């Protein structure tokens, strides 16, 4: 495994307001890393620092092994050529066609114009190339924005709330495209307040709460860590909460051997439950 | 063609396509040309009035078209996307300014033709015109960066327009020598004074001071624009 993003004791203050408080994390190449937290928790600030739009107040953020705060112009140019960004804003030229929007960035990134067609196929919009952006739905615009972020085959894709305000169908399209990209080797840094999105996409997640990381691990390990000690069993006679001990095992054995067992569920919490447990806050 | 030139060329092409589909921008660019008909005169009038059509073309088309283009990029968050691409800030500014410059030169030429402005030595005129265009484009970029929306550019830019174009009239009303001296250094007044000298038989050497003052305005505007641009480019 090779670390692609390394953050140590990172802080960011805006006047008296502390947006980030001493956060540490490392992202390995090829990972989908979820940064989860409610609005105002510091997610977008982190993306802005890692993408080079903003300097940290203290601490270090190294991307591709280079300290973001100490990049010279050549390093900054190289950095921008290797990252892609997708935010919840459309950021497209409304009066131009999809093709014109993508062609501009093909030229800026010095990739052939034919790449526009390839990325549009990836997001399932190849047939809409000549459509003017202002006539597109929000979901389609978001897919075009994703296509634009992929034009130069970035090593890291920063996604800041990429599916907020999208309907389930468009969210699914975006998720499928992201999974395919990740399989092809792209590292993805995803900020979201949508726990289902994080569960479905992320290899590792961090809970950001009031500027600090409250918990960080794989979704599965977090669920196991915060699972309670009971198992819910539904039998032909009713639903029971059974302890994970010898007595519980005997009861489950009896229900199974007498054919009364209907369903059995371990009571693993969702990421949303864990977030509430860890931070005492809610996600919105 | 170098990569930098390719990027500038790509931004120019984008601006051209985008501007040609933006009726508000096209109308703003055309306003000075419409006004030029009002200043069409056969009578002998002062240099301030004779240069008014070209000064309007420079300030309205130059500054306001540029301001609207920049403000719209900010409003729609596209300026940030450009800044996060490999395009350097100077390439983005050059690409955006090229279309505004073409529109401004076209508006100046049309305004001169329509208003029957007396002919002037071309070299001298170009030496006056170029720093003026640079200054107004820089001021336009500045107004665009300071505005949150393209509509707000009018609100922020109007005081500047009034001072530059109407300054001499206000100065006369205030009857203050200090104010009148300050107004005399406005780029619009420098243009009027230089043209007056040239129309009265003066040569290029007689207007160097006016070109110099205009160049100082241009350099100061560009520097201010760069400072604000660095601070505001990611705002949105």
From TrEMBL, chain A:
<dbReference type="InterPro" id="IPR027417">
    <property type="entry name" value="P-loop_NTPase"/>
</dbReference>
<feature type="domain" description="ABC transporter">
    <location>
        <begin position="5"/>
        <end position="235"/>
    </location>
</feature>
<dbReference type="GO" id="GO:0005524">
    <property type="term" value="F:ATP binding"/>
</dbReference>
<keyword id="KW-0547">Nucleotide-binding</keyword>
<dbReference type="InterPro" id="IPR050763">
    <property type="entry name" value="ABC_transporter_ATP-binding"/>
</dbReference>
<protein>
    <submittedName>
        <fullName>ABC transporter ATP-binding protein</fullName>
    </submittedName>
</protein>
<keyword id="KW-0813">Transport</keyword>
<dbReference type="Pfam" id="PF00005">
    <property type="entry name" value="ABC_tran"/>
</dbReference>
<keyword id="KW-0067">ATP-binding</keyword>
<dbReference type="InterPro" id="IPR003439">
    <property type="entry name" value="ABC_transporter-like_ATP-bd"/>
</dbReference>
<dbReference type="InterPro" id="IPR017871">
    <property type="entry name" value="ABC_transporter-like_CS"/>
</dbReference>
<dbReference type="InterPro" id="IPR003593">
    <property type="entry name" value="AAA+_ATPase"/>
</dbReference>
TrEMBL record, chain B:
<feature type="transmembrane region" description="Helical">
    <location>
        <begin position="92"/>
        <end position="114"/>
    </location>
</feature>
<keyword id="KW-1133">Transmembrane helix</keyword>
<feature type="transmembrane region" description="Helical">
    <location>
        <begin position="120"/>
        <end position="143"/>
    </location>
</feature>
<protein>
    <submittedName>
        <fullName>ABC transporter permease</fullName>
    </submittedName>
</protein>
<dbReference type="Pfam" id="PF12698">
    <property type="entry name" value="ABC2_membrane_3"/>
</dbReference>
<keyword id="KW-0812">Transmembrane</keyword>
<dbReference type="InterPro" id="IPR013525">
    <property type="entry name" value="ABC2_TM"/>
</dbReference>
<keyword id="KW-0472">Membrane</keyword>
<feature type="transmembrane region" description="Helical">
    <location>
        <begin position="21"/>
        <end position="39"/>
    </location>
</feature>
<feature type="transmembrane region" description="Helical">
    <location>
        <begin position="155"/>
        <end position="174"/>
    </location>
</feature>
<feature type="transmembrane region" description="Helical">
    <location>
        <begin position="207"/>
        <end position="229"/>
    </location>
</feature>
<feature type="transmembrane region" description="Helical">
    <location>
        <begin position="45"/>
        <end position="71"/>
    </location>
</feature>
<feature type="domain" description="ABC-2 type transporter transmembrane">
    <location>
        <begin position="28"/>
        <end position="226"/>
    </location>
</feature>
């Amino acid at each position: 495994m090779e670390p692609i993003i390394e953050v140590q004791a990172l802080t960011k203050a805006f006047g008296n307001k502390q947006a980030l408080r001493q956060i540490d994390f490392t992202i390995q190449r090829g990972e989908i890393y979820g940064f989860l937290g409610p609005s105002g928790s510091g997610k977008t600030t982190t993306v802005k620092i890692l993408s080079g739009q903003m300097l940290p107040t203290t601490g270090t953020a190294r991307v591709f092994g280079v300290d973001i705060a100490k990049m010279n112009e050549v390093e900054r140019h190289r950095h921008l050529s290797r990252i892609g960004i997708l935010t919840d804003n459309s950021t497209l030229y409304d009066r131009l066609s999809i093709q014109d929007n993508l062609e501009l960035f093909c030229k800026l990134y010095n990739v052939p114009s034919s790449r526009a067609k390839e990325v549009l196929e990836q997001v399932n919009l190849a047939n809409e190339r000549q459509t003017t952006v202002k006539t597109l739905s929000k979901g389609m615009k978001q897919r075009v924005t994703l296509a634009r972020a992929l034009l130069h085959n970035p090593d890291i894709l920063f996604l800041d709330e990429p599916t907020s305000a999208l309907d389930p169908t468009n969210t699914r399209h975006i998720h499928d495209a992201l999974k395919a990209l990740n399989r092809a080797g792209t590292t993805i840094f995803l900020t979201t307040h949508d726990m289902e999105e994080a569960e479905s996409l992320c290899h590792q997640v961090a809970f950001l709460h009031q500027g600090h990381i409250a918990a960080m691990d794989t979704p599965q390990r977090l669920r196991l860590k915060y699972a309670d000690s009971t198992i819910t069993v539904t039998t032909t006679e009713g639903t029971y909460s059974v302890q994970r001990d010898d007595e519980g095992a005997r009861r489950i054995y009896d229900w199974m051997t007498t054919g009364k067992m209907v369903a059995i569920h371990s009571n693993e919490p969702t990421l949303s439950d864990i977030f509430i447990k860890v931070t005492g806050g809610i996600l919105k | 063609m170098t990569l930098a030139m390719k990027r500038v060329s790509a931004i120019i092409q984008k601006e051209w396509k985008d501007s040609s589909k933006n009726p508000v921008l096209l109308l703003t660019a055309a306003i000075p040309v419409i006004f030029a008909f009002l200043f069409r005169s056969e009578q002998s009038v002062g240099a301030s009035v004779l240069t008014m059509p070209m000064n309007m073309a420079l300030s309205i088309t130059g500054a306001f078209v540029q301001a609207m283009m920049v403000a719209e990029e900010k409003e729609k968050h596209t300026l940030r996307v450009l800044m996060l691409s490999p395009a350097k800030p100077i390439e983005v500014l050059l690409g955006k300014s090229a279309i505004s410059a073409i529109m401004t030169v076209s508006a100046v030429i049309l305004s001169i033709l329509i208003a029957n402005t007396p002919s002037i030595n071309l070299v001298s005129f170009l030496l006056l015109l170029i720093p003026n265009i640079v200054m107004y484009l820089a001021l336009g970029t500045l107004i665009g960066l300071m505005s949150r929306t393209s509509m707000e550019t009018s609100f922020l830019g109007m005081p500047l327009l009034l001072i530059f174009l109407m300054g001499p009239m206000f100065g006369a009303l205030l009857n203050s020598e200090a104010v009148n001296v300050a107004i005399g250094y406005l780029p619009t007044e420098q243009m009027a004074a230089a043209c007056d000298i040239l129309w009265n038989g003066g040569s290029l050497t007689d207007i160097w001071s006016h070109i110099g003052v205009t160049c100082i305005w241009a350099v100061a505007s560009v520097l201010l624009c760069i400072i604000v641009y660095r601070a505001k480019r990611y705002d949105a």
